[in-house]
Amino acid sequence: MAVLLITRSPSVHESVVALCAAAGIGAEVCAEPGLSLATWREADLVLVGSDLAEPVAALGPPRRPGVHLVGAPPDEAAFRHAVALGADSVVELPDGAPWLSDALADVGERCSPGRLVGVVGGTGGAGATTLACALAQWHARRAPTLLIDGDPLGPGLDRLVGMEDVRGVRWEALAETSGRLGAGALREGVPRCDDLGVLTWSGPRRRLDVPTARRILPAAVRGHGLVVLDLARQGGPDLVELVDRCDDLLVVTPATVPGLAATARLVAEVGRAGRAGLVVRPGGLGDADAERVTGLPVVAAVADQRGLAASVDRGLGPLAARGPLARAARDLLAEAA
Length: 337
Fold this sequence. Notes:
This protein is of the alpha/beta class. The protein has 2 domains: 3-110, Response regulator (Rossmann fold); 115-336, P-loop containing nucleotide triphosphate hydrolases (Rossmann fold, 3-Layer(aba) Sandwich), CATH 3.40.50.300. Helices cover 42% and strands 19% of the residues. It has helices spanning 10-23, 33-36, 53-58, 76-85, 97-110, 128-140, 157-160, 171-175, 183-189, 210-223, 237-244, 257-270, 287-294, 308-313, 324-336, and strands spanning 3-6, 27-30, 45-49, 67-71, 89-92, 115-121, 145-150, 192-193, 196-199, 226-231, 248-254, 276-281, 298-301. The protein has an 8-stranded mixed sheet with strand order 8-9-7-10-6-11-12-13, with helices on both faces. Helix 6 packs across helix 15 and helix 9 (183-189) packs across helix 10 (210-223). The radius of gyration is 23 Å and the shape is elongated.
């Protein structure tokens, strides 16, 4: 069940059911507070009408996310009931209908949430940004994909995939906003070409705002089949937090003594366990050496690709032609799925 609506108010019933229909999701309407407890935990979103907030709160339902108080203009009593219910917000109708519409749209998209894959270079110049672009380009041929630039000192991911002149929202504009961000609004707002969207910076003065990233990433995952996050190697505590938010982490490293030594230090800093793996570039050492030094399994090996620089300079991106990058992207995404 997507939405549980607890109300006896005809106006609240009419407003919410209409919004649910527009979002393409189902709603169960319950007019008896006592009966609502049976499905309280199962619903993706619980909307408690202000007319029944007091009796529902008196039942002491278990705390859970995704509870909102909706209905008449809130007064002091409404806020007390919202606190008792552990509600995330109090939404006045009809003024709050646009906000509620976005929340309902997110519920519909949450039925098939995307995956967040982080890519970071174990050492400088390893090719992590190139791999991140290749993964996003490959997946965008099949489903909506978002490529997020998490490296303030990088070249700008929109430039690498030929989208620097495409209009759309960049990091700077999102950092100036506050509150909840809808998945659909983010998907349609960023620079986009077909099913590939890119979130990067618009100017030379760049700083990754982690609080903004905390708002962006959940919305990004709800609105896309895959989100690829290109991470800055020298991120400190910010890097650790962003890595922890990733479903999968790919660490790109050359199979050389200096490269693996630097990669081992990065792995020790981020402390990533579980779904993390090495993507090895050409060097003098083997996969067994790489795994022994870093403690991570080798999940792919990517050879040098001819014509890569020319393809990027022409605005085609790294995946313009068949080659090692295309094969690696295909295999890595199949493994992640």
